[in-house]
Every structure is written in C-alpha cells, then in structure tokens.
Amino acid sequence: MVLLHQSPTSSREHESLLRRLAGEGFAVFAPDMAGYGLSDPHPLGAHVTIEALADDVAAFLDATGIATAGIYGFHTGGCIANEFARRHAARATVTIVGGFVCQTDEERAETLANYLPPFVPLADGTHLPWLWSRVKDQKIFYPWYQQDDAARLSLTVGTPAQLHATAMAFLDAGDSYRSAYGAAFRYRGVDSLPHIPGAHYIVSYEADPLYRHLDRLPSLASNIRIERCATPELATVKLIEILARHRAGIAPPPPAPQARRSAWIGDYAGAMRLRRNDDAAGDPIVLLHGAGESGRALTALAQPWIGRRRVLVPDLPGHGDSEELHADGIAATARVLRDALDAARVQRCDLIGRGFGAAVALELARLDPPLVHRLALLDLPPSDAALRDAMRAQDAPPLDPDFHGGHLSRAWHVARDRGLFFPWFDRRAETRIATAIDTQTIHDRAVDMLKAGAAGRAAMLATLDYDFERAAAAVTAPILRRLPGNDWG
Predict the structure, then answer these.
(1) What sequence ranges are listed for the domain AB hydrolase-1 (predicted)?
(2) Which of 135, 204, 346, 468 is 20 to 30 Å from 355 at the Cα level?
(3) Looking at the structure, do residues 449 and 341 belong to the same domain, yes or no?
C-alpha cells in the first residue's frame, strides 16, 4: 500500500494511518514527494505537473521492487493517485482519491493568482508570523485568503502543537511548497476520469473543503465509485474496507539503497538522520553540531573535507530530522551515536564537535576508545562561572508552541541576536561580535531551534553542566580544543 500526502506537508501526515494499515496486515510505504519532507526539490520546480509526479510514483515502485500496490492519496496526493490510475493502471490494484479537486476555469485562475504566494525569508522575520496566520486560516476558511462567512469551514482549528507540526512541514518545503501544490490546482482531474480502467474510488467527508466538489462530477463509469462519509474516521474505515477488497501481492524485501550522485546523500542510521559524502575512501570524519542546531549548520565546516575524506554529519537525537531519545543526557546521546556509526559501518573516525557536539564527542571517545582516532572540540562553554549561570537562565528560552505563534518570532530573534552578540541576551556594545549574518542563515538557525524545541534546551543545559576537563583527562585520543577567545590548545 502506498500513501501519498497533500501539500505542503510530508509523509508524516500519514503516520497514524500507516500504523493502522500495518495492523491490518499491509506493508505500507509513504514517500515524501519531491520538494517536501526529506526529498529534494523537483527538477521541474514550479513547472512540475501532476503527470510528472504520477510518473515519479511509478519510479518509486520500480526502485523498491514493487510490481503492484494499492494507491491512496489525499488532496494533492489524491490528484497524483488519480493520474497514476490513468497512466499506470497495471501497477494499481486499486486507487483511492481522498478529496477531489473540481474547479471551474474562473476558480482555477483565481486560486493560482492568490493561493500560493512566494515564501521567502525576510530580514525582519515577519514571514514567520505570516506563515502562522496562513496555517491557522487554512483551518478556518477555504480558500484561506477569502476571509468571510461564505468561506468559513466546519473544521476544528487544532491545538498549538498540531498547528506547529503543519508550520514545520511548510518550513521544510520552503518556497518549494508551491510546486506540487500549484500542479494540483492546474490539474484537470475530471478529464482523466473517463480514461481510468481499474477500480477507482473517490472518498470524502463532510468537513473536507473539497466535499462540495463531489456534486460537480459528471456521470462516471461503473469502475469509479464515490463514497461520501460523515466524518474523517468513517472515511478511514471506508478506506480500509476498500483496500481489504483489493489487496496486492506480498511486498518484496526492500532492495539496497541506490545512491544518487550528489554532494550530500541523506539517509537514516537507526533513528538518526545522517548526511554523508562518500567521494573519498578511508576513515571518515564525523561532525557533530551544537545544542538547538542540526547537521546542516556544519555544511560550511564540512565542505573542505569533501573529496579528501569520507564525511558524516548526523542530526543528533531530538534535533533536525532525528528521533528523540527516551533518555536524556550526553552519555545517552553518545550511545545512540555509536549505534548509528556502527550501522553506517564506521570502525574508526575523527570527530569534530561543537558545543553540545563536543561533549558528545568526548563521551563517545570514553565509551568506545578504538572508534575515536582524534578529536577537535569547538565552541566550548565559557569558564567564567557567572556567565555560565546567566546562560543557564537565559540562553535557551522555551519555544513551546502557543496559539498565537509567538514562539516562531522568538526563535527568529534569538537566532539573529546570536549572530550579533555573545551572549546573545546581553546586547551591549561590549558584547558585540564581528560576524557576517544573512537572512537565510538566520532563518535556517531559527528553524533548527524550532525543530529541536525542548530537546535543544536540554542539550544546552547538559553542555553547561558537563565537566569537559575531567572527560578530556579520561580520553586517550589526541584532542584539539578551541578555547575561549578563539585560541587553540
């Protein structure tokens, strides 16, 4: 069974459905479409079509060794499923469209003119409050920009955590959010319906903004059925019933990953997201980011090693796109990192760690001395006790989602001030630092902080409390340290 997500989210939106279908005996695959989640932007960019995305699904089946599957898509994913049923009918035991877009030419033109404005980081950070309002309004109005009673929906707006999850998916996509989204609005799915030969279902529930579009559909062939459901739960039950009647064969074992040629290859080692470059052989160099960051924060630092060393840059647990730990602390993080490096078949490496990553690097060297050949420790906490106390109190403010989206702006301004002052919360002339910051860098840092959330705060506090000198004394590997004042020792 293959699940196709809507725009601008990712396969994460299907997580509960994935688990439910797995419990019903399905092998479930939920890819991130190009430009969303962890997938790269589509080569066609804003010119991508639903036809091209349907072909991408067929290529995904080829890459995973799947001959046939049931295909379900919601909204944008439903457009893709609809076109897949026409272009690749022999590959689908059944196709199910969750919410069918059926617009007039006038509605389509208005939607394309207003629904998908560019999403570009702004120097004052106001793109983040705009995003939060957009996410909320999309639960209140359809279309979201038509804010009057005629456009009101009967959907529940959701909790701050749910809105935050949608906002983070939007931030993952960035301006690429417009690609498949725009393709869905340009797509004329009704034109494909007469050419779909297999079992095909259109399923919708009453609160879905596209539910009223069902009344616009023409007379359909007997192989195409419309299922109207009162609630999302009943729509899910109907989906499972349909799939049970149209099971495909047993899914084959997954083939070995096929690495594409790129500066960075992204995959998972256990529960840890890992960026790697394999252009060189030999012992790898592993770079570990600081608290509240992700591996992408070290891209520039890693660049000189490309082609000279194998390079691995993980997102530490609870940060970036890695899963959270069930146990907090630097030692627990080091154990998870060791397991990830073992899964990546690393027998010996050099480590560069920054802040929290430096503490994890030291702990890993204590835990598994043969694994760690050499260490470089960057951006260690200050030795001044009063400054460390001030950092414990102020350096990592809470970023818990609130209904008004203030946490997004808070992250932006913290990320910006960190590039201007040290410590960032002491904004005097005496604390200014000479650095070049740009809007995209601030945006990336803010997004990393928002992804890490409480895990980033816990990592920062653990770093300030970590006894670097004692740990270093227990390590046999050579250590290069950057001390306060940017001196090396």
Answers:
(1) 1-89, 284-396
(2) 346
(3) yes
Task: Identify whether residues 390 and 470 lie together within a single domain.
Answer: yes
| 147 is a domain residue | no
Residue count of the chain: 489
Among 212, 245, 278, the domain-final residue is 245
3-class SS shares of the chain: helix, strand, coil, % to 5: 45, 15, 40
- Asked if 370 contacts 475 with a C-beta cutoff of 8 angstroms, the reply is no
Q: Which residues pair with 432 in a beta bridge?
A: 421
- In contact, 294 and 451? CB cutoff 8 Å: yes
Domain containing 210: what range?
2-121+174-245
Q: Where are the beta strands (DSSP E) in 320-421?
A: 349-354, 372-378
Q: Mapping DSSP to helix (H, G, I), strand (E, B) and coil, where does residue 51 land?
A: helix
Give the number of other Cβ atoms within 10 Å of residue 62's Cβ.
12
- 41 and 113 assigned to the same domain: yes
The answer to whether residues 240 and 296 belong to one domain is no
* Element housing 314 (H / E): strand 311-314
Q: How many CB atoms lie within 10 A of CB 108?
A: 15
CA dihedral (312, 317, 319, 322) positive or negative: positive
Residue pair 299/272 in contact by the 8 Å Cβ criterion? no
Q: Do residues 303 and 391 share a domain?
A: yes
pLDDT of residue 489: 37
- Apex 58 CA angle, 54 and 60, nearest 5: 110
Number of domains in the chain: 2
* Same-domain check for residues 241 and 271: no
pLDDT in tens, 423-458: 999 999 999 988 768 999 999 999 999 999 999 999
3-state class (DSSP) for residue 268: strand
What is the full DSSP assignment across 428-484?
Answer: SGGGB------HHHHHHHHHHHHHHTHHHHHHHHHHHH--HHHHHHT--S-EEEB-T
Is there a domain that residue 258 lies in? no
- DSSP three-state, residue 488: strand
pLDDT-flagged residues of the chain (< 50)? 484-489
In terms of Cα–Cα distance, which of 205, 186, 323, 349 is closest to 268?
A: 323
- The alpha carbon of residue 126 and the mean position of all alpha carbons in its chain are separated, in whole angstroms, by 22
pLDDT at site 485: 44
Q: How many other β-carbons are positioned within 10 Å of the β-carbon of residue 483?
A: 12
